[in-house]
Please model this.
Amino acid sequence: MRKGILALVPVLILVSAPAWEKLLAATAKPTPILSEPLAKLNIKDAAIETARGKPKGKLTIAQHFALDPGWLDPLEHSYVLTQQHYDYLVHDAMIKPMPQGEFTYSLAEHAEMTADFTKAAFRLRSGLKFHDGHPLTTQDVKWTYENYKGVNFKLFHDKLQRIEMMDDRTIIFHFKEPFVEFLDLYNGGLSGIGWIVAGHYYKKVGRDGFKANPMGAGPYKFVSQEAGVQMVFEAWEEYWRRSPGVKTIVVKGITDLTTRMAGLQTGELDLAYGMTGKLLPRLMADRNLRWDPNFTGP
Model:
């Protein structure tokens, strides 16, 4: 039986030329950007879903503090881990932590760094765009780096010698001296500088306008907010990696633990953070609810 199966394989390959071409494209080695000896990088490939489903339903989330509009602006990224929730919703990064690895390609499809750590290069995916349809290019990558004012901004600016845009998809960062920790810090998990901001839109609406009505290239478009209380996001079906599963995400800032608990039990909330303290045993005993320790404990 096994011999019969193996015999069929060459026939399938011969009659399925388009599929074979796609396989070759997927396994082909990327064209090098830098000519110098390169450091070995361990960046995982993105998991791209070709089948485009239709987003459905609504997910209502309660966070245990007031919501800060500043979290919607990667240019002023803080150390607060909560900000990453909004990074992943509205924006997209060159590389970022994903289930398949701490360093995973996202907007960038290829990256290189010289063995002496004085140059870093990226190649963007083709056809990227922001929520308004404007193309996302290396000009936006350069603009984000130069205008970043968040955590570690001084280090990024002091180390930089110049930025070279080879074309709309290829960019090289030249550093004054070895910048060994560059990829660790540029990764979307540790700062905001790798989350690419639409320069044309930011310059048009300004700092405060961007926080009030942010626009990015992530899987969800910002819809509205009631400062400190609620934010609403809608699925962007043109996201390059996959169509979001949920159509609408509503994030509420609910500081009172009892109110969050009641929301979970009535079904008004689908997910709530910060479920600790005296009510935790009651939550864990409710068979209709599931408790995930996440960053908290009893």
In short: The two ends are 56 Å apart (CA to CA).
